[in-house]
Amino acid sequence: MNIKLADLERRNGEPLPFKATLDEVDLKSRHHEIRGMTPVEAEGEAVQLGNLYYVTGKMKADVNFICARCLNPFTHHASVSFSETFAPEDDPILGEDEDSDILPLEGDEIELDALLQEDFLLAMPTFPLCEDDCKGLCPTCGVNRNEVSCSCTNERIDPRLAGLADFFKDSK
Ligand SMILES: [Zn+2]
Ligand SMILES: [Zn+2]
């Protein structure tokens, strides 16, 4: 979805509400933990203030993952906020601060789809867990320890260390 700059200018600082749907096929193929998902419904508003253009809003989708610890499928009701600022590409403000988050605008439209896709994918977990404290599978007998307790004598891992183990897996 694109927003025409002329439409924003005409509104004299009054926000322009918009709705957009992002196709899920492309998103799914770009994140290897996503097993399935609904299209992403985005809702937000765009406004021009002076030389700057602001686009903010929220995206929603149901995303299917497989839990990395217990291997059970689960659905994550994702809600991802976005907030982007743009300036015309020849605007001096873009050169002022290398760390600024202001994006250059080429042409006479704000092209939203690619940006929103990035924002959405960045918000997806690389180590999906059905619950933050998922107990995972028993390493000895393989039962799902969220559902049943077995009598195996596995060495108990301090939950804080388990979190650390996840962290290392995550950063691979
Ligand atoms: Zn789990
Ligand atoms: Zn067991």
Automatic annotation (TrEMBL):
<protein>
    <submittedName>
        <fullName>DNA-binding protein</fullName>
    </submittedName>
</protein>
<dbReference type="InterPro" id="IPR003772">
    <property type="entry name" value="YceD"/>
</dbReference>
<keyword id="KW-0238">DNA-binding</keyword>
<dbReference type="GO" id="GO:0003677">
    <property type="term" value="F:DNA binding"/>
</dbReference>
<dbReference type="Pfam" id="PF02620">
    <property type="entry name" value="YceD"/>
</dbReference>
